[in-house]
Amino acid sequence: MTEPVETDIWRDTWIRYLGYANEVGESFRQLVSTKVVRSSYAIAFAYTFGDTADKSYQMLQKDGRPKRVLVEAGDALLWQTLASVVIPGFVINRLCTYSIVYLKRYPTIPRTARSWIAVGVGLSSIPFIVKPIDSSTTWLMDSTYRRWVKVH
């Protein structure tokens, strides 16, 4: 019989989307204050630190050696920071910015409508960028950090 695969609640469940709170903030950047956008980043980083703490604790329980725990913490922190905050935040920011720039070519579209269209572009792109960014970040980590610290 096949062993059941353990579900990672931080990466395989709806909780993963908390890491994308900053993308929602970036999507609404044209319409909300900077404090709201910064708060969305605080949520995303809280998620990142939660996953890091969980992975570190699991390694502490499993192995207990400080070096292994530190390597696991570094892996989780780097992966989550890249896959949840930095890369998707940049992608959504650029999509919304370029949407606004493009829509300025059409002066008959009111400014508020252009802002809402950019919000729609940002929000609607989130489901499409999750898997490619996650798998690209995993590839990057496998090619660099994990190879350097001999995680695998």
UniProtKB/TrEMBL annotation:
GO biological process, one term: mitochondrial fission
UniProt-listed InterPro entries: Mitochondrial_18_kDa_protein
Superkingdom in the source lineage: Eukaryota
One protein family per Pfam: MTP18
This protein's GO CC annotations: mitochondrion
Family of the protein in this entry: Belongs to the MTFP1 family.
Name assigned to this protein: Mitochondrial fission process protein 1
Gene: HaOG203676
